[in-house]
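User: Quick sanity check before I run a bigger batch. Here is a single chain. Can you write out its predicted 3D structure?
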Amino acid sequence: MDQVTNLSLESVLESAAGLAVSTHARGPEGALPLTAEMLLTEPSGNLFGLTQNAGMGWEPNRLLDPEFLILSTHGGLRAENGEPIALGFHSGHWEVGLLVAEAARELKALRATPFAGACTDPCDGRTQGTTGMMDSLPYRNDAAMVLRRLIRSLPTGKGTLGIATCDKGLPAMMMALASSGAKPAVLVPGGVTLLPENGEDAAKIQTIGARFAQNQITLDYAADVGCRACASPGGGCQFLGTAATAQVVGEALGLSLPHTALAPSGQPIWLDAARRSARALLRLNALGIGTQNILTSAAVRNAMVLHAAFGGSTNLLIHLPAIAFSAGLARPTAADWAHVNRQVPRLVDALPNGPRNFATVQVFLAGGVPEVMLALRAAGLLDESAVTVTGETLGASLDWWQRSERRATLRRRLTELDGIDPDDVIMSPDRARSRGLTSTVCFPAGNLAPESSVIKSTAIDPSLVGDDQVYRHQGPAKVFITERDAIRAIKSGEIAHGDVLVLVCGGPAGAGMQEIYQITSALKQLPHCKHVAVLTDARFSGVSTGACIGHISPEALAGGPIGKVLDGDLVEIVIDRASLRGTVNLIGEGTEIFGAEEGTRRLHIRAPRPDLKPDPNLPDDTRLWAALIQASGGVWGGCVYDTDAIINRLETKQ
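Assistant: Done. Predicted structure follows.
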């Protein structure tokens, strides 16, 4: 710090370095491979593009090689030896540049011309509990728009390779690739980080503040384990949160090569995926297979099936409809999701769903997406006719996987490294049933959520679930308008056994539909945590646990009845984990108890709370996003920008 405070004005304004300035340079050797026809018919931009390519050092005799674009979410600046020159927003995109370089070298070796561009992404973990979270979900649409513009800004490009890893950058990349139409696109997932040899995973480590406040850990312990949780420098978190689930969904859509989701970042098998993906892109171009041939309604349903079988993050209920919309397909509805989840058993034991909570890299070694697909195929739950970026059908890929040496070797390695039976990680339906695995996502409705809501039913403490597989909770509401006030109440002991914590104004119009993992992680440290339920119009992290109901619609600031709940109101929650049906209702006021029907009547005549208001720090950019997505189908429509709907709304207002 002394070095900074002692900097002189002269050192900022002037230096003797670099004053020998040139005004001319020799320029590249050689000549552009032009023809008379090109000069007469090609747009000037195409011709000038060749000049710029030569200026950047590309060999003139290769300037007419087919051009392909590599887009990534790379962040930070690494030295050649991997040391940081400037940090990225998160470890998930820190090593992505290595994949870009590997793919580019492969394209060049195969007589193609690679271009590379990037739109980096923020981190939900870094912005938890901060005003940065209000930009998190809105960023996705902005990034998708930028990435689409970059694709269109290389009009000579034959196809796109997209490389991304984490919560918002990866869905944005898939939205952009989905719009590729007749041109091919291949997704390279950025992989996952490794577990520390001794310490805590990246999910548990996010609770060190709450645990310290409850005197559960020491300052020294927090500092020690906090330093090691991201045990390797790149890749998404070790749990099945939004980043990992998005990688699974990308592969299930057919956008990624088989067994590339959840690969360990920085390792040879991860780099190899970039090389093979580059080859796949060239092969698709040669076969004339465009993204529109891969992203079909069958692919979307397959992705929903895999989401259910993995027990993935509920944030994909927002992202997958947006990807479908970007491809010109029908958006899955809450009813569609509910139907799939009632049909499809959960087969994967991964953090945070349990029961044994294996890390994502262990799921990868157990066989990852294609291994789960084998079990789903046997149950008749997949559409094997869907085409993937291999250029062949999904069925053909699964035939390869079933007999592949890669499968046998990696599953054996999991046992050798960690003493884990891969069949305990990815199970058959019968084995999963015997281990107590149940389907994950339920969509409760009721007088507090007339347009639905969502809960990961597997996140409810099993000791609270009856023999009939039904969770029942009645408790008084404690209502908070901001996440800050809710966190303060939790840490100061104001949340009691049996309470229903209600956080409103967390939806799109209130706080950009913030993710409130900080609340669920803080609650988890209370001795009576499992006896506290949470209702909110915000959303949860994929690693959240407990009886947490989010995405409550309509949101409070859109007139939803959740914005009429008062302190002391009696709330009833019923979640049937077998049938995946649930209700969330107002059933009492103070000491008076009545039924849901009467609760509906009283909510109808009640005025909204007078203290409802957007967060005072809500950025104008996010306010605009909230207005545009509300005109485009809202949260259940994927939080997209539906241009036709927005224009129609504007014209109707005139």
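The chain has four domains: 65-195+231-430, 196-230, 441-618, 621-626+628-653.

User: Great, the batch can go ahead then.
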